[in-house]
Design goal:
With 959 residues, the chain is α/β, with parallel strands linked by helices. It has 29 helices and 36 strands. A seven-stranded mixed sheet has the order 15-14-27-26-25-16-17. The protein has a six-stranded mixed barrel with strand order 31-35-32-34-33-36. Strand 14 (312-313) and strand 15 (322-323) form a beta hairpin. In the C-terminal section; belongs to the prokaryotic molybdopterin-containing oxidoreductase family. Belongs to the complex I 75 kDa subunit family.
Length: 959
C-alpha cells in the first residue's frame, strides 16, 4: 500500500471542459488541449514551465503579476499566458530575450519591496517568490532602498507603510510585510470558500490585503479559517504556525479526514513522527483541494495530553483506575464477559460500533458479537442518527444510501435543503453549494432556524420555509400536494421508472384537503404561499437535488420524511441524472461505512437480514462458526434490558453514548447496572465514567484502513505516524477476540477488506490495490461496475420500479403546553464536532468554548432574559443550565442549542421518543421551559463531581 506521495504539479489555471480539441505548438513542441484552455496550462501539459506568481490551477486566471508573459506569432506585445486562451495553429514562444527581460524587470520590482530574510524565513524551500526569482534569472536588484512595506523603521524614523503581523488566528499568521498583493488569498476566499472575508484595500502602492472592516483581524472578521487563503499564498505572508514551530516537512502521506461525512482527502506533511500541516489533496474526489477549519487545522487532539495510552481496569466504577498491561486488561475483560454469559445467558452482552472508526475496525466489532459472543447484539451511533435514511431509501429505491456524488452539485439548477446546515456541518459541501448558488441555482431551505446558506453572497432566487419542529412530513407532503394538484409532475418518468398505479393511489392521498398548504400552515406555521412557491420552483427546475440531514431523521417520523423526500424526487423525475438526486449528508466520517459493515442488529454487511439462510450460510462458511438467525438488541433495548437485570456486558468502541444518546439519566442508569463495560477510545470520555476496562485507541493518523463518505465513496486512511498506544484499533479488537478464543489471524487491514469484498456483493470489487490505483471508488463496486458507481438508478431503480409510499403526518407525542411552552431543537456549529471529544482538545475552542441557547427576542423578553445570562432549560426528562444568546435566527416558540460540551449535557433534557420504524431518537423536538438561572444546575454539579471521581488514576510504582 502506498504511504508516500509526490505533490501534484500546479498547471497554473483550472482545467476546461470542451468537446473541441485545439492543436498548437509551444517552444516547438506540439500539444493538443480542449478549447478554452489557457496558454499557461497548455504549456504545462506540454512539459514547458512558464513562471507565475498570481496564477494557480485552483483559481480562475487573474493576470496581475505579469511574470507569465509569452510571445505568440501574429499577436502584438507579450500577453499573459494565464489569461490567453489557445487557438488552432497557435505558435507560442515562452523563452525569448524580450520575455526574459520583462520577467526580470517585474521580479526586480517585487523583490525591491520584499524582506530578503530567506535563510530564516519559515517558507524557505517552499516559497514561489523565491523559486520564480531563480526561474527568471534574477541575480541583482538595481533599485535603491526607499519607502517600502517591510521595514519597521527607516533612517528618518517609523515607516508608515509597515504593518505588524496579524497573529490573532490560533492556526496561522498573516505578515503584511511579505505580501506581494497577488490576490490569490482574496480570490481563494471568494471562489473556493465563498465567504468573501478578505479584500484588497487601497490603490497602487497603498494596496494591501485586509480581513474585514477597519480594525478587524483574522479572528474577528468573517474568516472561517478554512485554510484556502493559506494554501493559495505563494510566499510566507500566510503560513501555518506549526511550520514555524517544527520546520519544513520531509515526507507526505495521503489520508482521509476523520471529521464529517464529506470525506476530504488530505496530504499529511510530516517531519519524522510529527504532523507539520494537513493540506487538502487537489486530487481528492470529494473535496477537490478544499477543506474546513476542522480537517485543515484541528488535528492536534491526536497528540493532546489528555490521551490515555495505557490500558486500565477497575473492579467497580466507583474505584480509581489501575494502569495495567495489555494482557491483564484483555484477560480482565474476557473473564467478565464470559462470566456474564455464563450467569445471564448468551444474549446478555453486546457491542456498539463507531462511525468514527474505519470500515475494517467496524467490521471486526460486529463480527466479534456474531462470531464470538454468539448473538446479534450490535448497534451503532449511525442508527442513532441515520437509520431512517437506510429504511426510507431502501423502501423507495432499493438502496440504503445517497444517490449521487458531490460533483452533481455543479450541475444542479435548484437545491432543496431540509434539516441540515451544510455550511456548519459539512463545510466543504456547503462551499460548493454556495459556488453553484452564485452561478444562479435556486435554493429552498426547510429549517426551523435561518442557516448561513441563506446568507450566501450574490444569492439568487431563494425560499426559507421556517417550519415548526416536528412538522417535516406535513410540509414535504404539502409540497407534493401542490405538484400533483397543479399537474407539475413528470408523467413520462413516473410511467417508465415507477409504478403508475401506486402513483395514482398516492396522488389521491395527496389531494385530500388536509394536505393543502392552507391546512398545513396551521400545523407548521409556514405561510401557505411560501409552500406553493417552493413546490412550483422545485418542480420547474430542469435539475433539482435534495440534501437532508439529522433534522429529517432524528424525529418520530424520520423514516416517513425520508420516504416523502423520495416521493418528491421520483414524481418530478429528479433521480438518475447529474444535478439531481436525494443526498443524505452524513454527520460523521464513517456513518455510511458503519451502516454498510453490518453494525445493525438485524443486518449483516451489505444490508442483508440475519434471518436470510443464504447470507447466514455464507458467513458461517467464512467465519467457521454457527450464527444466530434472531435479530439482536438495539442500543435502547440494551439499556432497557440492563435496567431489568438481563443485559450485563458492553464493548463500546469509539463512541461516547453518555453524551451523544438521548435521555442521559436513562443511559447512565443502564451503564451503572452492568457488570462489565469496556470503553475503547482515545480519551476517558463521559461513557468511561461508567466503565470497568479502558482500552486506549489510535487516532486516524496512526492507522490504515478505509472510510466511506456520504456519497458512498470509499477512501483510504493511511498511517502517518506510529500508534502512540502501540496498536491500531483493529489489532486491539482482534486481541480481545483471541483472548475469548476466536483465533483470528489478520495481519493487515487489507486482509479484512478482502474478507469484506468476498462476502459483500456491493464491495466485491474493492481492494486496497484498487484504492491505491484509483484514489477512491463509490460502491457498488463489483463486476458490473469495476470502478464504482458515482450515480445510482440511471436506467432503473435497484428494486425495479420506484415505490411511492403514503406519508401520513402523525404528530409527535412530545407536545408543548403551559408547563413546557417552547420547542427545543439541536444542531452543530462549524468549529466543533459532534460531542467535541476531538475539537475541544484543539484551538477550535477559541470560536466556541461553550454551548449556548439561542432564543428569540420576544421569548427572551417575556422571561426577563438578556444575552449572556444563565438560563435553565427544563423538560419532562430533566434540566440543565447554559448561557442564552438572543437572536432572530430562531422563530418565536423555538429554542436551539448544540451538544458539543459535556458540561452542558443537553441530552439530559431530550426524551426517549423515537422513529416508528428504526428507533432513531427524536433529538430534534423536545418541549421545554426556559427561565433565568444562577448557574449550573444541581444535576450538572453532581455529574461533574461524579466525573472527577471517576477519572482518578492510581499512580504506578515508577511514579
Amino acid at each position: 500500500m502506498k504511504d508516500f506521495i509526490i505533490p501534484d504539479r500546479d498547471l497554473g489555471t483550472p482545467a476546461v471542459k470542451s468537446d473541441v480539441i485545439v492543436n498548437l505548438t509551444i517552444d516547438g513542441i506540439p500539444v493538443s488541449v480542449p478549447g478554452g484552455t489557457s496558454v499557461m496550462r497548455a504549456a504545462a501539459i506540454a512539459g514547458v514551465t512558464v513562471p507565475k506568481l498570481c496564477a494557480t490551477d485552483s483559481l480562475n486566471a487573474f493576470g496581475s503579476c505579469r511574470i507569465c508573459v509569452v510571445q505568440i506569432d501574429g499577436m502584438r506585445g507579450t500577453p499573459a499566458s494565464c489569461t490567453t486562451p489557445v487557438f488552432e495553429g497557435m505558435n507560442v514562444h515562452t523563452q525569448t530575450d524580450e520575455v526574459a527581460q520583462i520577467r526580470r524587470g517585474v521580479m526586480e520590482l517585487y523583490i525591491s519591496d520584499h524582506p530578503l530574510d530567506c535563510l530564516t524565513c519559515a517558507a524557505n524551500g517552499d516559497c514561489e517568490l523565491q523559486d520564480m526569482a531563480g526561474a527568471v534569472g534574477l541575480r541583482e536588484v538595481r533599485y535603491e532602498p526607499g519607502t517600502n512595506h517591510f521595514q519597521r523603521r527607516t533612517a528618518e524614523g517609523p515607516n508608515p507603510e509597515y504593518r505588524p503581523k496579524d497573529q490573532s488566528n490560533p492556526y496561522f499568521s498573516f505578515d503584511p510585510a511579505k505580501c506581494i498583493v497577488c490576490n490569490r488569498c482574496v480570490r481563494a476566499c471568494e471562489e473556493i470558500q465563498g465567504t468573501f472575508a478578505l479584500t484588497i484595500e487601497g490603490r497602487g502602492f497603498d494596496s494591501r490585503v485586509s480581513a474585514g472592516m477597519s480594525g478587524d483581524n483574522f479572528l474577528s472578521s468573517d474568516c472561517v479559517s478554512c485554510g484556502a487563503c493559506v494554501q493559495a499564498c505563494p510566499t510566507a505572508t500566510l503560513i501555518e504556525n506549526k511550520v514555524f514551530e517544527i520546520g519544513t516537512p520531509e515526507r507526505i502521506v495521503k489520508t482521509t479526514c476523520a471529521y464529517c461525512g464529506v470525506g476530504c482527502s488530505f496530504d499529511a506533511h510530516m517531519r519524522g513522527e510529527e504532523v507539520v500541516k494537513m493540506v487538502p489533496s487537489k486530487d481528492g474526489k470529494a473535496n477537490h483541494g478544499h477543506s474546513c477549519v476542522k480537517g485543515r487545522f484541528a488535528w492536534g487532539y491526536a497528540t493532546h495530553q489528555d490521551r490515555k495510552l495505557e490500558p486500565m481496569v477497575r473492579e467497580k466504577i466507583t474505584d480509581p483506575w489501575r494502569i495495567v498491561s495489555w494482557d491483564e486488561a484483555l484477560n480482565f475483560a474476557a473473564d467478565r464477559l464470559k462470566k456474564a454469559q455464563a450467569d445471564f445467558g448468551r444474549d446478555s452482552i453486546g457491542v456498539i460500533t463507531s462511525s468514527r472508526c474505519t470500515n475494517e475496525e467496524t467490521y471486526l466489532v460486529q463480527k466479534l458479537t456474531r462470531a464470538v459472543f454468539g448473538n446479534n447484539n450490535t448497534d451503532t451511533c449511525a442508527r442513532v442518527c441515520h437509520s431512517p435514511t437506510g429504511y426510507g431509501l431502501k423502501t423507495a429505491f432499493g438502496t440504503s444510501a445517497g444517490t449521487h456524488d458531490f460533483d452533481s452539485i455543479d450541475e444542479t439548477d435548484l437545491m432543496l435543503i431540509i434539516g441540515c446546515n451544510p455550511t456548519d456541518g459539512h463545510p466543504v459541501v456547503g462551499s460548493r453549494m454556495r459556488a453553484r448558488l452564485r452561478e444562479g441555482a435556486g435554493l429552498i431551505v426547510l429549517d426551523p432556524r435561518r442557516t448561513d446558506i441563506l446568507e450566501t453572497p450574490h444569492l439568487g432566487d431563494s425560499w426559507h420555509l421556517p417550519l415548526r419542529p416536528g412538522t417535516n412530513v406535513a410540509v414535504v407532503t404539502s409540497l407534493a400536494h401542490v405538484i400533483v394538484s397543479e399537474k407539475l409532475y413528470d408523467e413520462e418518468y413516473i410511467r417508465t421508472r415507477c409504478d403508475w398505479d401506486e402513483f395514482l393511489a398516492y396522488s389521491e392521498f395527496l389531494l385530500d384537503p388536509r394536505h393543502s398548504p392552507e391546512e398545513v400552515e396551521k400545523l407548521s406555521q409556514v405561510p401557505a404561499d411560501l409552500i406553493r412557491q417552493a413546490a412550483r420552483a422545485y418542480a420547474a427546475a430542469p435539475r433539482a437535488s435534495i440534501f437532508y440531514g439529522l433534522g429529517v431523521t432524528e424525529h418520530s417520523q424520520g423514516s416517513t420524511t425520508v420516504m416523502a423526500i423520495a416521493n418528491l424526487a421520483m414524481m418530478t423525475g429528479n433521480i438518475g441524472r447529474p444535478g439531481t438526486g436525494v443526498n443524505p449528508l452524513r454527520g460523521q466520517n464513517n456513518v455510511q461505512g458503519s451502516c454498510d459493515m453490518g453494525s445493525f442488529p438485524h443486518e449483516y454487511p451489505g444490508y442483508r437480514h440475519v434471518s436470510d439462510p443464504e447470507t447466514r450460510a455464507l458467513y458461517e462458511r467464512v467465519w467457521g462458526v454457527p450464527l444466530s438467525d434472531e435479530p439482536g438488541l438495539r442500543i435502547p433495548n440494551m439499556f432497557d434490558e440492563a435496567l431489568n437485570g438481563r443485559f450485563k456486558g458492553l464493548y463500546c468502541q469509539g463512541e461516547d453514548i453518555v453524551q451523544s444518546d438521548p435521555d442521559t439519566k436513562h443511559v447512565t442508569g443502564a451503564l451503572s447496572s452492568m457488570d462489565i463495560v469496556i470503553v475503547h477510545d482515545l480519551f476517558l470520555n463521559e461513557t468511561a465514567n461508567y466503565a470497568h476496562v479502558f482500552l486506549p485507541g489510535s487516532s486516524f493518523l496512526e492507522k490504515n484502513g478505509t472510510f466511506t463518505n456520504a456519497e458512498r465513496r470509499i477512501n483510504m486512511v493511511r498511517k502517518a505516524m506510529s500508534p502512540k498506544n502501540g496498536y491500531e484499533d483493529w489489532e486491539i479488537t482482534q486481541m480481545l477476540a483471541n483472548t475469548l478464543g476466536a483465533n483470528w489471524t489478520y495481519t493487515h487491514p487489507s486482509e479484512i477488506m478482502d474478507e469484506i469484498a468476498m462476502t459483500t456483493p456491493s464491495f466485491s470489487g474493492v481492494s486496497f490495490d484498487l484504492l491505491d490505483r484509483e484514489g477512491s471508488v463509490q460502491w457498488p463496486c463489483n463486476e458490473a461496475a469495476p470502478l464504482g458507481t458515482p450515480l445510482m438508478h440511471i436506467d432503473g431503480f435497484v428494486r425495479g420500479k420506484g415505490k411511492f409510499i403514503h406519508t401520513e403526518y402523525v404528530a409527535t407525542d412530545e407536545r408543548t403546553g403551559s408547563r413546557f411552552p417552547l420547542l427545543l431543537t439541536t444542531g452543530r456549529i462549524l468549529s466543533q464536532y459532534n460531542v467535541g471529544a476531538q475539537t475541544r482538545r484543539t484551538d477550535n475552542q477559541v470560536w466556541h468554548s461553550e454551548d449556548v441557547l439561542e432564543i428569540h427576542p420576544s421569548d427572551a423578553e417575556n422571561r426577563g432574559i438578556r444575552s449572556g445570562d444563565w438560563v435553565r432549560v427544563a423538560s419532562r426528562s430533566g434540566d440543565t443550565s447554559l448561557r442564552a444568546e438572543i437572536t432572530e435566527r430562531v422563530a418565536p416558540g423555538v429554542v436551539y442549542t448544540t451538544f458539543h460540551h459535556p458540561t452542558t449535557q443537553a441530552n439530559v433534557v431530550t426524551t426517549d421518543n423515537s422513529d416508528w420504524a428504526t428507533n432513531c431518537p427524536e433529538f430534534k423536538v423536545t418541549a421545554v421551559q426556559v427561565s433565568p438561572s444562577n448557574g449550573p444546575s444541581d444535576w450538572q454539579e453532581e455529574y461533574q463531581t461524579h466525573s472527577d471521581l471517576s477519572r482518578r488514576i492510581l499512580p504506578t510504582a515508577a511514579e
